[in-house]
Amino acid sequence: MGSGEGEVDGGDPVDQGDRGGRPALTNAHALAACAQELFLRDGFEQTTVADIARAAGVSSRTFFRYFPAKADVVWVESDAEIAVFRTVLDAAAGDAATGGVAAGGVDAWRVIADGFAASLDHGDAQETWARHRAELILREPAVQAQATVIYAQWRATIAEFVATCLRIEPSSAPVVAIAYAGIAASRGAHELWLAQTGMPLSDCIFRMFELMRPAISTTIETR
To answer: What are the extents of the domains in the chain?
Structure first.
């Protein structure tokens, strides 16, 4: 394997079918899955874009049409995960707005935990992939560089939900605190999950969110 992430085949403008003994993979998710297999087998640092392209049966040029850099493949599911997260939060906000929750309201902090569990726990079938991805996100500097952008999207979603449901300004200290605390609890849950191999990720999420519950009230009252 080579050492340069940015090396590009002298290659063909159009992929030539089966370059590596398998059909060409020409969408972002398929390329990311192929890359993850190589990361698991050979290590992140040891795997180059050229290696990924060769295994996928495409040119490096095709890889760069989908991803700016090797580290970006780790985040390929982020848009879909944030969409699921937002759906959970929006449903709770809608129920609160229409009075469709039990007397006493609903706990916004628990809703945020529910959203993380629904969006990030990919189940037993994907556990090996998900654990390895978590290790890369938590420990690999090249992957962490993109994390700042992704975490900002999660925080913005949390902040919008909290500000709407608690009827306070999005820039207020409680909203900012809860948004950052949510990210911290999620990261802590993943650290716990990597250390506790027998615990599902969702259990780790709920455990960490309970331990890191904000001191301020997060109860959404019915309207």
So the answer is: 1-72, 77-220
CA separation for the pair 185, 204 (Å, rounded): 10
Element at 107 (helix H, strand E): strand 106-107
Tell me the Cα Rg of the chain. 20
CATH of domain 77-220: 1.10.357.10
SS3 (DSSP) at 67: coil
CA angle, residues 153, 157, 163, in degrees to nearest 5: 140
Of 153, 145, 147, 32, nearest in space to 83 by CA: 153
Give the C-alpha separation, 62 to 20, whole Å: 15
Which amino acid, residue 39? F
What class has domain 1-72? mainly alpha
Q: How far apart are CA 17 and CA 30, in angstroms?
A: 15
Asked whether the domain spanning 77-220 has the same topology as the one spanning 1-72, the reply is yes
Is-contact 132 36, C-beta < 8 A?
yes
The per-residue pLDDT for range 21-39, each reduced to its tens digit, is 455 657 898 899 899 999 9
Q: What tokens does 164 get?
A: 């709407």
How does pLDDT run across 34-71, given as a tens digit for each residue? 999 999 899 999 999 999 999 999 999 999 999 999 99
Q: pTM of the predicted model, to two decimals?
A: 0.81
Q: pLDDT digits over 120-139, tens only?
A: 998 888 888 899 999 999 99
Q: Mean pLDDT of all residues in the chain?
A: 84
Among 40, 38, 41, 59, which residue's Cα sits nearest to residue 50?
Answer: 59
Place of tokens 């709920």: 206
